[in-house]
Amino acid sequence: MKALVKYKKGIDNMEIRNVLIPEPDDNEVKIKINACGICGTDIKIMKDEFPYNIPVIIGHEFSGEIVKVGKKVNGWKIGDKVVSELHTGACGVCRFCRTGNYQACKFKQSPGYGINGSFAEYIKMPSWLLHRIPDGVSMEEAAIMEPAAIAAQTLHRANVGTADFVVIFGPGPIGLISAQMAMIAGASRVIMVGKEIDSKIRLPLAKKLGVDHVVNIDDEETNLENFVKNLTSGEGADVVIEATGSEFAINKAFEILRWNGRMAVVGLSNKMKLNIDWRTGGFKALDIRFSFSSKYLDWEKTLQLLEKKKLNLKALITHEFVLDEWGKAFQIIAEGKAIKVLLKPNK
Prior knowledge:
Blueprint: E1 2-6, E2 14-18, E3 28-37, H1 40-46, E4 56-57, E5 61-69, E6 81-84, H2 95-98, E7 122-126, E8 130-132, H3 139-142, H4 145-158, E9 165-169, H5 173-184, E10 189-194, H6 202-208, E11 213-216, H7 224-231, E12 237-242, H8 247-256, E13 257-265, H9 278-283, E14 287-290, H10 296-307, E15 317-322, H11 326-334, E16 340-344
Parallel strand pairs: 9-10, 9-12, 10-11, 12-13, 13-14, 15-16
Antiparallel strand pairs: 1-2, 1-4, 3-5, 3-7, 3-16, 5-6, 6-8
């Protein structure tokens, strides 16, 4: 089968290769890939800014159909349409696994960078990680389930609730999904903050999805702190969702949060160390929580939102390409000309 392989450490070093079709073990299923989303992590792997094994088939956001079932698999059959969590290799017996935090298991090897992923025609996955795609949910929508589940976990970590004033930094897929989920959770107002590169596609989409205000932080006339204070009687935001990993955005978040405000950080920085105004965070007694990956209920609840048409993922899909066109797909993301791009196996 054809697959997109990162074959050597360093920048680029990726190509389409013919590789063996994976065959499932007794507790696994073989899935025919229908659609696969390109994630920021995939871009970072291309740029050598994220840890990975080599050689490895990259890609981890996918939807597909079961075409083969292992001997010991129960509850799944050929023809089932599925998505999957990524906690492959989790031991099941350590403290983290036994408390439901499989994403923290030191033995976990996620598809797309730890083990072979989904930019391919087929993938094999343990059956215990699967979720059924509800009727009425398209394969394209389902292919974005993984970032949607990450957004759900981030909102849970931030404890977003009724009447909260929420500011989101970063109108990428996770930021845009987080905005929708904040509105579903009952936020009084949601503000989306982006940069000039986001002004043509991403910020307008945020507005279209129902966000109350969009802010281009690169605009010379923008004073985000004053803007937020004017809307909150001088108090500041209740919650910030930080989805950029940017030193600038994190420091801005500290400025605009109210005393005892809450901040959930889901963006990953390209740097090992950041210069953060820790003193302001201390004086404000901010509640800062980092969020990484997702859990079982994040997937189930998000699939329910999709089934009930309360969450709009279709709007995020701006482009679709076949696998052979991966270079063009990666390029338009890097140039800020897309939101979510799907790759599909060659016909």
